[in-house]
Amino acid sequence: MVLRGYVPTSEETLQTLAALRLQSLNSDFSTHAPFPRLEELFPPHVLHARLPPPPHRPPTKCRGARLRVGLLAGGLWGQALAKQRAERDQRLRGRLREEGASTMAAIVEKWKLLQGMGRPEAMAAYMALVREWPGFGSTLFDVDLHAVRPQLGVVQGQLWQWATLTPLSLQSPVGCGPQHLWLGIGAKAVSLYKPGEPEPLDSFCYGRISSFGASDSSTFRLSIEDRDLLFETSQVEEIAQLLNMYLTSASAQRQPRPQEPPTSPPTLEPTVLPQGLCTAAGPWQHRPPVGSSHS
Fold first, then answer.
1. Taking a C-beta distance cutoff of 8 angstroms, is the pair 231, 143 a contact?
2. Are residues 184 and 126 in the same domain?
3. pLDDT > 70 in the chain, percent
4. Pairing, β 179-185 against β 202-205
5. Strand pairing partners for 212?
6. What is the pTM of this model?
């Protein structure tokens, strides 16, 4: 998760984590110690973020301009532009190598300071740094939030229209593109993060989840009380299985033991079913596959 950029922290801390990893793998610094590749120690996207963005090209507005651009692309102008792009790419690759060498040198200097630290101590120090992130322990999934809409679909025979809603500090107005987010699934709550941000945009405990599931292999719905969050993701099944496991565990913990009857009368408030389902089954609701198990 650290190497994939799923632990948002400072670059200084990332270098320290890399040094601790080297100490754990190779013990004290030595010029003869095997050096892993930088991408095995440090998240590559941090290096790429240092590079200048590609030049912005204003879109051509009229058909005549597009035609002229197309004609020029096949001539000398096209060859000149291709040469410029190749030179720019070469400069960026050189800049990336320089940034990588600089980062590796900083990691090695931090590694030298760890001399005498044993492998268990290095691992403990590594975990202590990672645990400083409040989302530690969650499994993060890349998702695109497409809409936040009321859970009820029909009122007086008319379909509800999707609208700009901010029930979870999120905005997903009609006509705007999806928001790229992290969906963090932990033992106690589900959270939504803006990538790279340490604090969640919103977080909700499992008692607020009424149902979840998918209509196809890439669309996932999560119903929070009276609202639906619609996500596009390539990991629909993984998300559903993990949610089902945590919801089942949370439901089992809430159920009173036989020798300890409930001390208060039951209320009329809705509760989460063992599989996290609503009472009325629908095409979106998740049903765990027959014979499936989770460890």
1. yes
2. no
3. 67
4. unpaired
5. 222
6. 0.66
Could you give the number of structural domains in the chain?
2
Listed residue (134, 139, 146) closest to 171, CA to CA:
146
Rg (CA), the chain: 26
Would you give the distance in Å from CA 6 to the centre of its chain? 7
Same domain, 100 and 147: no
CATH of the domain at 14: 1.20.80.10
Residue 27, sorted as left (phi over 0), alpha (psi -120 to 50) or beta, turns out to be left
DSSP H helices, 113-235, are 119-130
Q: Which domain, by its residues, includes 9?
A: 2-52+81-132
Regarding whether 193 and 115 lie in a shared domain, the answer is no
Q: ∠ CA 178-179-182 to the nearest 5 degrees? A: 135
Same domain, 32 and 122: yes
185 — pLDDT class (breaks 50, 70, 90): very high
CA distance 7 to 202: 17
Name residues whose C-beta falls within 8 Å of residue 28's C-beta, 6 or more positions apart in sequence. Answer: 114, 115, 116
φ and ψ at residue 143, rounded to 5 degrees: -135, 160
Residue 142 sits in the same domain as residue 238? yes
pLDDT tens, residue by residue, 145-171: 986 766 544 333 333 333 333 344 454
Distance CA 254, CA 109 (A): 51
